[in-house]
Structure formats: structure tokens, C-alpha cells
Amino acid sequence: EDDDDDDEHEIDAYEIGIMETYKRLWSVVKLPAVQSLILILLTYRLPCALSDNVKFLKAVEFGLSKQTTALLSPTIILPLGILVPIIGTKIWQGHPLKQFMFAYKFRVTVVALVDVLMLLTVRSFRGGNTSLIGGETTSRLIFWGLLIASTALQAIVHSLQFNAQMTFFAHRVDPAIGGSYMTLLNTFGNLGGTWPSSVVMYMIGQFTIPPVCSVGEDGSEVCTGGRDAYFPLQLVLSTLGCMWIFVMSKRVHHIAELPDDAWRTQIENEDEEEMQQLKKGGKHA
């Protein structure tokens, strides 16, 4: 009988129609817990937008070959993307938002600093200075070390946060509308990563002043002046990230402690009561 009841419930959820689906999703959006989560999802990616969207474009502009950047994905990013969620789950068992905040604090401070150092090193090599510290061999070790560290750290924190985000979603959604609920939260998560990229691309374009280039007497190109907006903008965004942590960490902790009922609407409860009444009526008949 229990199996029959589950099948009937699944069929009922499947056949509610598009209008009823949107009605339920709107009820989900009106929940205070979900509104707090949406605010977090829509804002936390802005301080990380340079690292996520501009860093490697700027590295290629500074002289890093596209072949090198393409090589980093299968050798560093892919293995870490597989291993990090497994390790993170074992370290932060049952506390995905603690994992999320640990990675975020690291992301807006240490990762941003390593990114800046990596780009400065790439730009120095492009300028012909292949001997930064202690000779050419040591300089190349520094160059590759910073490049690998920048790529690996970004992959680690991104995997930790994405894993924590999806784990939290899965534990909090109402099973009655689990698929639609997950889609709604993922939509806001994707939106939170999309709009910051447009903003930082626009700001980079607005505040960057290209250098004035001319041909020297020996036929080589000489460029003077100009201003690169990446580095001051990274400082501003890292500061904004620290402010986000100060302001929003309590909200993150609050939603982590909320009970399951805080994530569920009354519509499902009303539907369950109606179904139970119908079943009782059918039995009496």
C-alpha cells in the first residue's frame, strides 16, 4: 500500500500543470529563508569576478600563451575538481555552509593576492625581464610556481564552494517539489555568477587607458603611458569581499541553523491534507 501511495503522489506532482508549478515556486521565493539564500547567491560572486572571468584573459594579454592556459585545465583543474569535493565532504561533515565560508574567505584574500602576483610575473616576463630573483632558473620556477598556484587555488575554492552549495540545496529542498525547487535555487546561483562578469568586464573597459605606442628609431615598438584597471579594481573587489564576509556571515550562519520546516511552504501541507481526505473519502465509499 505504501508503494501505491508513493506512486500516486508522484503522479499527482507530475500532473499539477505549469501554472500550479509557478504558484508553488512563487510560494517558495516568498519564504524568508529562501530570500536570505537568494541574497547570498546573487551577491557573493562579485568580489571574485576578476579571478573567475578576467584573470586568464589578462594573462594572455600580458604574454602567456593560449597553449599554456589550455594545458592547465586537464592537468590541474580537472583532477582537483574531482578530488576536492570528496576531501571537503570528509572534513566538513554535515556542515556545508562552514565549508562554503572557509573557501570564500580564502577566495577573496589569498587567491586574489596570488592572482595579482602571477599577473605581475607574467607581465615582467613579457617585458623581457626573465631574471626576477636569483637568476633566470629561479625566476622561471617562481613564474611556474605562481601560475600553478593561482590555477590550483582557484580550482580548489571553486570546487569547495560549488560542492557546499549543491549539498546544502539537496539537504534543504522540499522533496514534494524537489526538482523544481533545485532548479529555482540553481537558477539564482547561475544568475549570481553571470551578472558580476558583465559588470567587471564593463568596469575593466571603462577604467583601462591603453598606452600610446610608436615606432622607435631602431624599428621597435615603444609604448608609454596607459593605465591597467585590473590591479586597482582587484583591490576594490577584495575589500568588498571582506565587507561581504563581515556583513553576510551572520546571515549564512543563520540559514545554516534553520530547521527543515523553514524551507517548506504551506501549499504542500494543504495538498497533503486534501489527498488524505480524498483517500479517506474513497475508503468510506
Question: What does this protein look like?
Answer:
The chain is an all-alpha fold. Helix content is 77%, strand content 3%. The protein is built from 11 helices and 2 strands. It has helices spanning 2-14, 18-29, 32-43, 49-53, 55-61, 66-91, 96-126, 136-172, 178-207, 230-257, 266-284; strands spanning 212-215, 221-224. The protein has a two-stranded antiparallel ribbon with strand order 1-2. A hairpin with a 5-residue loop joins strand 1 (212-215) and strand 2. The radius of gyration is 25 Å and the shape is elongated. The two termini are 18 Å apart. The relative contact order is 0.15. The model is unreliable at 1-13 and 281-285 (pLDDT under 50).
User: In terms of structural class, how would the helical and strand content be classed?
Assistant: mainly alpha
Poorly predicted runs: 1-13, 281-285
Helix content: over 70%
What is the strand tally? 2
Element-level helix/strand string? HHHHHHHHHEEHH
**Count of helical regions:** 11
